[in-house]
Design a protein that fits this description.
4-stranded antiparallel beta sheet, alpha/beta
Length: about 240
């Protein structure tokens, strides 16, 4: 089994200070949840090396802080997916490895990942020919093609129509739990947490207010926000 991720990060955003500490085990995706403006995406950016931060970020014994983004081994799936419009699905996924192992081997690896994520029959399609859910899974496959030690997903359901989300949540949750690397899912949706995460860290106003499984949060919510979140008093998200 791959090594766990251990994070203890602090950063400044304007006049606000954001700090979070948590660990993530392979096979147990972590949901980083909180209201808008809580600092979730800033923490994700700090983990990816895109936002300056202090502290520690380790995968097993390897310290990632101080390394540039391309040397961290962190794969990121952003809300807007950033697929290359001029490349088909296979070459979108192969792109990360093409320079390192050559185009032919990269395309073979891409085919394996597409099979893993149930996308093999879409290999020859272009991004404009994909549904929102298909494009989301292609973006995950592309992030995995770089063989990251950690996978980060930023609001993975945000760009999808509401009626598409439930089915994709179930499928994506199964795929994420099958990965042998730590996975962090940034969201503000209870339904995302239920489907995609086994452990939860709640971030409010730049600080962690509660951590544990959803069952732990339901049994003893630490703040009014957590109480609303786990109590289901929401249509889709908070």
């Amino acid at each position: 089994m791959s090594a766990a991720l251990v994070a203890d990060l602090a950063l400044e955003r304007g006049a606000a200070r954001i700090a979070a500490a948590f660990d993530v085990r392979p096979g147990r995706p972590l949901g980083l949840v909180g209201p808008n403006g809580a600092g979730k995406s800033s923490i994700l950016g700090a983990m990816a090396g895109l936002v300056p931060a202090d502290g520690s970020l380790r995968v097993g014994p390897r310290e990632l802080m101080g390394l540039p983004p391309e040397r961290r081994g962190v794969g990121v799936v952003f809300q807007d997916l950033l697929l290359f419009r001029h490349l088909d699905v296979r070459d979108n996924v192969a792109f990360a490895q093409r320079l390192r192992i050559g185009r032919r081997r990269a395309r073979v690896r891409a085919a394996e990942l597409l099979q893993l994520l149930g996308l093999a029959d879409l290999a020859d399609r272009y991004p404009h020919e994909l549904s929102g859910g298909q494009a989301q899974r292609v973006a995950v496959a592309r992030a995995l093609a770089a063989e990251p030690d950690v996978l980060l997903l930023d609001e993975p359901m945000a760009a999808l129509d509401v009626e598409l989300r439930d089915g994709l949540r179930r499928e994506l949750g199964e795929r994420l739990r099958g990965l042998d690397i730590p996975v962090v899912v940034v969201t503000h949706s209870r339904r995302d947490l239920e489907a995609l995460a086994d452990d939860v860290v709640v971030l409010e106003a730049g600080r962690v207010t509660q951590r544990g499984s959803l069952a732990v949060l339901r049994a003893a919510p630490a703040t009014p926000y957590v109480s609303r979140l786990v109590g289901g008093r929401e249509s889709e998200s908070l």
